[in-house]
Amino acid sequence: MTYSITPEQHKAIRDKYGIQYDRLVRENERYKITSIARSTAWQLEKEGKYPLRKSLGANSCGWSLVELLHWIDNPPAVAKINQPTKRRGFANGSY
Fold first, then answer.
1. Among 2, 7, 12, which residue's Cα sits nearest to residue 73?
2. pTM reported for the whole predicted model
């Protein structure tokens, strides 16, 4: 399972943000755009819930700007959300 967008979604994101051409962004810009840590991005990428990095050489990579913007507009469902009312002891008032 990998994260991918269709050509129609790609064009819609470019039109929405006024981007004429897609480009690759490096780690610093990726962090500014998504505000998630490198390790979290790597974990989501392994799960297929984040755009895949593209290799630029032996020690460098980048992400598609359009795919990152699409990911922001359509975030993945979060299964492990903090739900205080689900904690043990909450129902009987000992919370």
1. 12
2. 0.78
